[in-house]
Every structure is written in C-alpha cells, then in structure tokens.
C-alpha cells in the first residue's frame, strides 16, 4: 500500500510537470477554417513565419478576417502569404525594432502604400528603445486618407523631432480624419492640424537642448 | 442470567414506566437538524485526502520531490500570462468614440479577447444604429476577427453598443450583424481592403 502511494505521488508530479511543459510550448493556432486544405496551408505559412521569428498574431487575424468576410480559401491563403512578406519587409526596415506591435504596424503601413524608406526615416527619428507604433499608425492613416506620403512623413518626423508625445501624434491623425469627414481637403487638414500640435511643443532650440540622447534635433 | 441481574433490570424497567412521557421540543429538534445540515460534510476528494498519508521519504527522496516541485513551478510560471491592466485607462475617463458621441451609462465594457499591448488600454466605445438586427458583434484586428468574442448590447432605442479596452494605435474593424453580414461603421473612416474586397472601418485609439 505504501509503495502504491509513493508511486501515485511520483506519477502525479510527473504528470503535472508534463502538462505544464506542454502548456509552455507554442500554442496551436485556433484557426476555425472549415476547409481543411486552406487551414493546413495557412498553418504552414504561420509555422514558417514563426520559424523566422515573425509575429504570428497578425497572420491569424488576417486568416480569420477572411473567414468572417466569407472569402474563398485561395484568397485567404494569398492574403496570409502577402502579409507574411510584408512583416518580413517591415522587420528589416524597422531594425533594430523587434517588437511584434511595431513590425505589425510597419506591415500595415506598407499595405497602405507607405514607402519602405518612410518606415526607415520614422524609425531613425526616435531612439531605438522608443516604440514607433503610433507614428507608423498615423502615417498609415494619413496616407490612407489620400495625403501624399512625402508630405505626411515631413510633418510626422518634424513632430517626432520636436518631442511630440505619441498621444499628440495620434491626435493629429484623429483630427485630420475628423476634418476630412467634415469636408476639408486632406492636405489642408494635415497642415492646419500639424501646425496646431506644433504650437503646443517647445521651441526647436529648447527641444534640441532637452532632447534625450538619440533624438535628432529638428532641422 | 443471574437472579441479581434480573432484579436490577426489573427495577430499571419500572422506573422508566413510571416516568412521564418525553415530549420533544420542536424548536430544539429544528436547531439540531439545522446544525447537522450546516456541518460541512467531507466531499469525495476530502475523504480521499483525509485517508491520504504522505509516504515516508528518505533524504534523497525528499530532495527529489522538492526539486520536482521547483521545476514544476518554474515551468508553470511561463505558462501563466499576465493580464493587461485596465485600471489606468479607465481612470482617464476618456472614451474615444468613432464618429463622436459619449458612452452610455450602464453599458458594460467588453474585454476584447485577443487584446495584448505594450501600453495602457483605452476604453473605446463602438456604436451601431441597427434596430432591425437580432445580434451584433464587433470584429477587428484586436479580437482576431472572431465574431463571438465581442457582442454589442442593444439599448431600448435600438442602438447597439460596446465599450472595449484597446491598446493605443490604429485599429481596423467592422460589425458582424446577425452572425453573417459584415458592415462597416457608418460613423467612422473607411479602411480599404485589398485582400478581401470588403472595406471595414478605422479607429485611432490614444490615451488623452
């Protein structure tokens, strides 16, 4: 009887360890794709991305977006493969940033038509340890509203150099959206709103003297 | 049985017969039954643990069990994910609403299932005026476009709404009406959709 209980104790410990170890493994992707061939193809794409160190959550979301929108299996596969390529490009362009959120935002920017060089410039405008998710997202939104990428990039990097906070940069995108919805031309909306945010920031000289190491002074 | 014992038994019997009949007090019986009912009864697991006796282990065996427990704790630590805090975002009292407006009182905040983020989450209200709908859900990049994750609540006016804590940034979303129909938010800017050809909407979330 005593031997039996000892064996039970050891078995319980081994079982618990094995269960916990299994839980720590990469979780299988919950893809509710009815078509088995599509599901397997998407799972392979996600596994390849994971092996390359790319974030996989955007790929899962892209596949599930296709399911929700009742897209064909071919379209879902193509969309996921295309996003995986953009994630790879964004990671290279945004180096040394490695956060999943930044890489995903970079991939979205590329999809919206933001040039790769703009991603590099946005990354370079702030120190490497500071997330550029918000500048990238605002850049994406401005370009999506029809503002030329060059114009949008100038305004965003100027704000970044002057020490604007992510919230201030986000408010720029939000205000421009509201103005465009109200009928203002996108370019004009950006100019007006960028000027408004800029007026809240310290002067270029003060920004240059108080900028943390790595932040480029305004031109 | 001896004669002496018979005498004792006879006397006891006579004494009991002459005593007045005991009438049970109903309240006392009720208290007794109540106490017996409230006494926690050991469940199957408790009975099992009650019967359990830790096996005697040698010094080496005890060390092995301790090491296994430490290893298990270390392994489990990686499996447990930290929950994102919602309090700082809620404390701001700011509710960015696509297309303007203010959140309705009494409407629950729905946690977006797939939300993960580096920054504090910002409660963001979504609104769809669709009185004819039977069910409306929010789908977007923040919940992996899963229709069942973020249902909207129908108000008496027929307006559907949900307030969802989201990480700051640009989010693409749509409404899923009656489980199948994907509808863009008429109150928000549109997002193109080169992949699937069904445009959604965009919300810029930021902590004010």
Structure description:
The complex is a heterodimer of chains A (219) and B (208). Chain A has 11 helices and no strands. Chain A is mostly helical and 219 residues long. Chain A has 2 domains: 94 residues, no CATH class; 104 residues, no CATH class. In chain A, helix 7 runs parallel beside helix 9. Chain A is globular. About 5% of the residues of chain A have low confidence. Chain B is α+β, with helices and mostly antiparallel strands and 208 residues long. Chain B has a single domain, classed as Immunoglobulin-like. Chain B contains 5 helices and 8 strands. In chain B, strands 2, 5, 6, 7 and 8 form a 5-stranded antiparallel beta sheet that branches. Chain B has a 3-stranded antiparallel beta sheet with strand order 1-4-3. In chain B, strand 5 and strand 6 form a beta hairpin. About 20% of the residues of chain B have low confidence. At the A-B interface, helix 1, helix 3, helix 4, helix 5 and helix 7 of A face helix 4, strand 5 and strand 8 of B.
Query: Into how many domains do the coordinates of chain A divide?
Result: 2
Indicate the CATH architecture of chain B: Sandwich
Number of beta strands of chain A: 0
What is the CATH topology of chain B? Immunoglobulin-like
| Poorly predicted residue ranges of chain A | 18-28
Instruction: Kindly report the name of the CATH homologous superfamily of chain B.
Output: Immunoglobulins
Number of domains of chain B: 1
- CA-CA gap between termini of chain A: 82 Å
Query: What is the overall shape of chain B?
Result: elongated
Features:
heterodimer; A: 219 residues; mainly alpha; 11 helices; B: 208 residues; alpha+beta; Immunoglobulin-like; five-stranded antiparallel β-sheet; three-stranded antiparallel β-sheet; 31% helix
Quick overview:
The complex is a heterodimer of chains A (219) and B (208). With 219 residues, chain A is mostly helical.
